[in-house]
Write a structure and sequence with these properties.
Largest sheet: 5 strands, antiparallel
CATH architecture of the largest domain: Orthogonal Bundle
CATH class of the largest domain: Mainly Alpha
CATH topology of the largest domain: Transferase(Phosphotransferase), domain 1
Oligomer: single chain
Number of domains: 2
Structural class: alpha+beta
Number of strands: 9
Distance between the termini: 62 Å
Number of helices: 9
Length: 333
C-alpha cells in the first residue's frame, strides 16, 4: 500500500471522495441523480454540482474533516437559515428530514439549491451602495444574537499561531527567517494595540471572509453562496476587503459602501482605523493557511508559486510595507 493510501485525513482529506461517492451521498438524501457531477472551485472543502432527474441540479458541499465541530457547522447553517428567513440573499442549506448537516461514508456534507451569478466588479457608486445595503442587512440580523461555537477574529489564532506555523514550516528560506520573525512580531503588537479600543464583547456575527470571490451578483443584486468562514468580529471586517486601489479610491469606495450600510445598520466610524491592521492580519494568516494545507494535493496544484523564494521575498516585503501603512492616518470619509 502506498504512503498516500496510508496518509492521515488531514494530509489527504478527500482521497476517498470519488464521483460515485458524491452521487451516492446525494441519493442517500433522497435525491435522484442523473450521473452528472461537476467539481466547483473550492480548496478548503469540496463542492460539486450534481444533476438531478427532472429537476434543477443541486450543489453539495463536503466539509474538510477535523476542521469544524458539528456544532460549529450547524451554527453556520442556522445563521444562513436565519438570514434567508429575513429575506437577506444568502443561499441556505436544504433540510433533509429536518437536518441540514448530513453524513455519508465518513464525510459530513450539506446540500444547497444551485444559484448562479458573476463576481461583482463594484465599479460604480450604485453597485457599491447596493453592496453596502446587503452587508448592512446581514449585520442587522447578525446583531440579534451571538455565536457559541464559531471562531472569534483574534490575534491569537490569526496572528500568533499563524506566525508560529510559518516559522516552523520550513517554507521560509533561512536568510528570510529573522526578517519575517521581526516584522510579524511588530505587526501583531501594532494590530493588538489597534484592536484594544474595540472590545470583542461588542462584536457581532459576520460573514468573516467577505471578498469579491465569495459574492455572486445577478440582476437581482448580490448574494452569498455559503457562510463557511462566519465568525464573531467587528463589522468593518466584512467591508474592508471590498476596498482596493489608491487611498483616494478607497475613501470614495468606503463612502459608497457606508452610505448603503447605514440604511440598515449602525456603523462606528472609528472602525475605519482597523482597515490596515486587519489587512496585515489577513496577510499573516493567509500564508499560514497555505502552509497548513500543503499536504492536500489540491494546494500544490493551485498555488505552485508558494514554494518559490521569490514569493517569500515578496511576502516579507509586503509585510514590511504594511507595517509602514500602519503609520499613516486612518482612512476617513
Amino acid at each position: 500500500m502506498s504512503d498516500a493510501a496510508n496518509a492521515e485525513p488531514s494530509e489527504r482529506p478527500f482521497a476517498r471522495l470519488a464521483p460515485e461517492v458524491v452521487i451516492a451521498a446525494v441519493e442517500a438524501a433522497g435525491e435522484r441523480c442523473d450521473g452528472r457531477v461537476l467539481a466547483l472551485g473550492s480548496y478548503e472543502n469540496r463542492v460539486y454540482q450534481v444533476g438531478r432527474d427532472d429537476a434543477e441540479p443541486v450543489v453539495v458541499k463536503f466539509y474538510r474533516p477535523l476542521r469544524w465541530s458539528d456544532a460549529a457547522i450547524r451554527e453556520e447553517h442556522d445563521f444562513a437559515l436565519e438570514l434567508a428567513a429575513a429575506d437577506v440573499p444568502v443561499v441556505a442549506p436544504l433540510k433533509v428530514n429536518g437536518a441540514t448537516l448530513l453524513e455519508f461514508a465518513g464525510f459530513r456534507y450539506a446540500i444547497y439549491p444551485r444559484r448562479g451569478g458573476r463576481w461583482p466588479e463594484l465599479g460604480t457608486s450604485d453597485d457599491r451602495i447596493w453592496m453596502g445595503r446587503f452587508i448592512g442587512r446581514l449585520h442587522l440580523v447578525g446583531r440579534t444574537r451571538s455565536f457559541e461555537h464559531r471562531p472569534l477574529l483574534s490575534t491569537v489564532s490569526f496572528g500568533h499561531e499563524a506566525r508560529t506555523t510559518l516559522l516552523a514550516s520550513g517554507f521560509l528560506a533561512e536568510y528570510l527567517e529573522d526578517r519575517y520573525a521581526s516584522v510579524t512580531e511588530e505587526l501583531i503588537a501594532r494590530i493588538e494595540a489597534s484592536l484594544r479600543p474595540f472590545p470583542a464583547q461588542a462584536w457581532i456575527r459576520i460573514h468573516g471572509d467577505c471578498h469579491r470571490g465569495n459574492i455572486l451578483w445577478t440582476d437581482a443584486g448580490p448574494h452569498f453562496v455559503d457562510l463557511d468562514d462566519c465568525m464573531t468580529g467587528p463589522p468593518i471586517q466584512d467591508l474592508w476587503m471590498l476596498l482596493a486601489g489608491s487611498r483616494d479610491e478607497m475613501r470614495a469606495q468606503a463612502a459608497d459602501l457606508l452610505e448603503g450600510y447605514r440604511q440598515f445598520a449602525v456603523f462606528d466610524p472609528r472602525e475605519l482605523a482597523l482597515v490596515e491592521p486587519l489587512r496585515a492580519l489577513r496577510f499573516i494568516h493567509y500564508a499560514a493557511w497555505l502552509a497548513r494545507r500543503w499536504h492536500d494535493p489540491a494546494f500544490p496544484r493551485a498555488f505552485p508559486w508558494f514554494t518559490e523564494s521569490r514569493y517569500w521575498e515578496e511576502h516579507v516585503q509586503t509585510l514590511q510595507e504594511q507595517l509602514a501603512a500602519l503609520d499613516e492616518e486612518p482612512l476617513n470619509i
